[in-house]
Description:
It is a single chain. The protein is mainly beta. It is built from no helices and twelve strands. The chain has strands at about 15, 20, 25-40, 45-50, 55, 60-65, 75-90, 95-100, 105, 115, 115-120, 125-130. The strands form three sheets. Strands 1, 2, 4, 5, 6 and 8 form a six-stranded antiparallel β-sheet that branches. Strands 3, 7, 9 and 12 form a four-stranded antiparallel β-sheet that branches. A hairpin with a 2-residue loop joins β4 and β5 (about 55).
Amino acid sequence: MTYNTQDVTDTITLVDNSKITVPNTGIYDLQFSSQFRNTDNAQHQVTIWVKVNGSDLANSGTVITVPARKTASIYGYAVAAWNFFFSLNSNDYVQLYWLPSSTLVTMEHEPASLSPAHPASPSVIVTVQQVA
């Protein structure tokens, strides 16, 4: 997963739009939510997992099912949301990965709309904070 907007960065940095890098040794809480859209008439799966310093984190993978679309204009959506606690060293980095079972499943950003009125919906939101 990649990120193109940062709201509050404090001391945690984003490298190469995907590596969430911590400045200090400690325990960190990573929370995320991601929105997936399926444009196919069949349901599909998405696997999501975590890498720490480029290596898969054991037992971090989860599979979700994204429903099939209902009509030509009503797509299937699913939201994945988890949080993880990590013991990290200074300059370690964490990345979120995803793999859909079909190219018809995407991480979807929805723009703001006036009719019906709603704010934009990002494809992924990530929050990381040091807790100890």
